[in-house]
């Protein structure tokens, strides 16, 4: 499984690499407030290095001072590096090697994760920040089957989303039924669940990464828990985002 996940992570990274390598101006603003294209790539590079530290020296990772501005500050610092694209290429290649050999749970900013879950999270984050870059450049990306990973982690983090928003984790399961880019059906949760979320997989991926506003998406929610979850859904660690 980890081999297939890492292959998809490579593919997602190469797609974004091609996009930014052809961009003339990395100082263009992206939809993330205060972040340029350089910030987006810098953040991915920094997170790769953080993941490597978590794998190789979990004690040092946990000893890091996590100030409230760490994400913005490190992204800004990385964006100023003259050789950022090469550094990101190196960091993602190194992380791939570490994930291929990693065993057991990996400490992280949210709950500890297996190597497979970490690879899935890196696909999700690469795709999400790639969306920001594409939006900045006015590029419309063709969705691929790789967005299933984004949707999967979005479904798996339902309880985390409730906790982050100060809400009790629901004790009922939600059925999620999505239509993939090729018309395929992707399903999570029991068939007879009263609470259901459905729609295009791309819209759901935008939802859980908070890359589009709820009103733009063809996502339907049925049931109290489903209706409560959809507005707060998030696939990423950290405090709730401001959305689009």
Structural notes for this entry:
The chain has 244 residues and is an alpha+beta fold. Helix content is 52%, strand content 8%. The chain has helices spanning 2-21, 37-56, 58-62, 70-79, 84-101, 115-137, 147-156, 158-164, 201-208, 224-229; strands at residues 174-179, 185-188, 195-200, 220-222. The protein has a 4-stranded mixed beta sheet. A hairpin with a 5-residue loop joins strand 1 and strand 2. Helix 1 runs parallel beside helix 6 (115-137), helix 2 (37-56) packs antiparallel against helix 6 and helix 7 crosses helix 9 (201-208). The longest helix is centred in the middle third of the chain and has 23 residues, at 115-137. The two termini are 33 Å apart.
Q: How would you describe this structure in keywords?
A:
alpha+beta; 244 residues; 4-stranded mixed sheet; globular
The counted number of beta strands is 4
Uncertain regions spanning at least 5 consecutive residues: none
Overall shape: it is globular
- Helical residues, percent: 40-55%
Terminus-to-terminus distance: 33 Å
**Total helical elements:** 10
The value of Rg in angstroms is 18 Å
Structural class: alpha+beta
H/E element sequence: HHHHHHHHEEEHEH
- What average pLDDT do the residues reach? 95
Strand content: 5-15%
Strand order of the largest sheet: 2-1-3-4
Biggest sheet record: 4 strands, mixed
Pfam families: MDMPI_N, Wyosine_form
InterPro entries: CHP03084, DinB/YfiT-like, Maleyloyr_isom, MDMPI_metal-binding, tRNA_wybutosine-synth
Protein name: TIGR03084 family metal-binding protein
